Amino acid sequence: MHRSDRTINYQVAFSMALVWLVAMLVMLLVPQIRHVEQRQMREHLVRAISLVQADLKRMRAFARDWGEWDDAYDFIAGKGTRAFIDANLVSSTPMDDFDLHLLSFMDLRGNEVWSRSRLPDIQQSHFISYPLFMEYLKKALLERVQEHGIQGMQDSQWGPLLFAFHPITDSQRQHGVRGYLLAARWIDESYLSELSHRVAMPITMRGLHGEVDLTRFQALQRGYLYRMGYSGLDTQWGEIVMLDSTGHPGLLLRLESQRELMLGGGRVLLFTLAGTLLICLVCGLFAFFRLQVMVLQPLGLLIQGVQRYERDGDSATLPLIESSREMRILTRRFREMAARLSLQHKAAQAHSQRMEEAANRDPLTGCFNRRYLDAWLEVLEPSELQLAVLAIDLDHFK
């Protein structure tokens, strides 16, 4: 078995080093906060796109209700035109209720029968593009329209817009399509401000025109791709690419968030860890000092006493230490053990002397025997003395 030569001081210091190492490893977990940030950003992106989808559904429901309304069918067919306009279209209530910028009735060729529009919050220089854009949009929608209508998002010189395009039929669908209803709402500053308020995060939206590398994005939902990143240490952003019906990138929605909460949480965590390490250091030093006073120094004195006992054989040289109950018991046991060893040693010496006497002397006369003589002659130097040997043979000595 391997015998460790490490002192208690070394092992205590090594244990403190392990504590610091574990604490440093815990500090390395601080970057895991980024995973929390990214998860929250993804949730915000999903919420933002869900709100846009909800607005699209509301617009589609509006276009479907009006497109399958018998009065609207009669209006586009030329029946009761003035009465329908006076009762439903002169008022801006429908557009106000759904925040629409455009409500247009058109025939099967896309020619306007009746339209009502409001200008979004855009630059005045873009107003001239409105007629051209509407003609382009109508033509594109007429080529793609389905039985149940279409809805989506479209980029324009005025910026992105939400639209719903629905065929105008009678409620029972007994007659054919007589025209189309187009409802549109531009994603202007007021819409983005409201959307930002609902998501609790600044939002921008713009057209892409095929300028984004989709390989850097991940799938979020069907028809949507997303990515996330950081602008410096204070800002986190997330982007969603909205694909059109052909699978090409159409619009880009971008969210930005200040990392105050996460940075504050990271600072609190770092301060907490630093404070914990400092407390561990102070407690470790205090424990080390107490260990030195209560254990290490008494053990040093005990070792010195054992060394003196080994040299002198006097159990009184062993110290009696009162620094703690355990050390008092330990030193007393050492003194008792040393006293017993001394007694056993003296008894062994006396027994050895008796055995030596019995081996070298005749038990009857007390005289040295031949064994003693042989041993004495072996150690005797021949030049030391001049000796004479007298041998006497006594019969019947007993």
UniProtKB/TrEMBL annotation:
* Residue ranges of the TM segments: 12-31, 268-289
Q: Which GO terms describe its biological process?
A: cell adhesion involved in single-species biofilm formation; negative regulation of bacterial-type flagellum-dependent cell motility; signal transduction
Q: Please list the residue ranges annotated as the HAMP domain.
A: 293-346
What InterPro entries does the record tag this protein with? Answer: CHASE4 (IPR007892), Diguanylate_Cyclase (IPR050469), HAMP_dom (IPR003660), Rev_trsase/Diguanyl_cyclase (IPR043128)
**Coiled coil regions in record:** none
Give the keywords, sorted: Membrane, Transmembrane, Transmembrane helix
Q: Which residues constitute the signal peptide according to the record?
A: none
One GO MF term attached to the UniProt entry: diguanylate cyclase activity
Look up the record and report any one GO term of the cellular component aspect: plasma membrane
Entry's Pfam families? CHASE4
Domain of life, per lineage: Bacteria
| Listed name of the protein | HAMP domain-containing protein
